[in-house]
Amino acid sequence: MFVSICTQLLQAQNTSGLTANSTATIIRGLNLVGQKDLRFGIIIPDVLPGTVIINPIRARTKTGGPYLVNQGSSTQWGPAQFVVTGEPNTAYSITLPYDGIIIIVGLQMMDVDEWTSYPNTNNSLSATGSQTFYVGGTLHVEGNQPWGSYSGAFTVTVHY
Where are the domains of the chain? Predict the structure, then answer.
């Protein structure tokens, strides 16, 4: 009787199998190339502090004391320009600096912060797989800021 029950249990078992596919799509990695630096232009300090603002759609304004020289000369001032390339018609994001940076000459410093980009930080590559974007920021000029050619670096990243 025991053999009969075991045989019936073994016969009642059923197995099933299924074959599934595995796929992967490899896309082009993103490449970022800088075309132009962020340029605040020629500035004459005043006794009052202020800011110089470069917005990413090519406007330069100021607050407070600094005087802007060559206001109309767009070769001396303007936003940073970047070209990103990658997989056509694919969304990507721009990450701007979270904090400000310091630009220096000798022992003298100025802060740059309030980063902006155009187009904004969430974008899509064109049908050819590229897009140009611009980055602006705000330069803080102290009253009687010492003269010199100040410089510093900032990092912009792009990712899918």
Answer: 27-159
Q: Are 124 and 89 in contact (CB under 8 A)?
A: yes
- Looking at CATH, the fold of the domain delimited by 27-159 is given as Immunoglobulin-like (2.60.40)
Indicate the residue type of 4.
Answer: S
H/E/C letters for each residue in 79-145?
CEEEEEECCCCCEEEEECCCCCEEEEECCEEEEEEEEEEECCCEEECCCCCEEEEEEEEEEEECCCC
pLDDT in tens, 101-144: 999 999 999 999 999 999 987 899 999 999 999 999 999 999 99
pLDDT at 10: 53
Say if residue 146's pLDDT is above 60.
yes
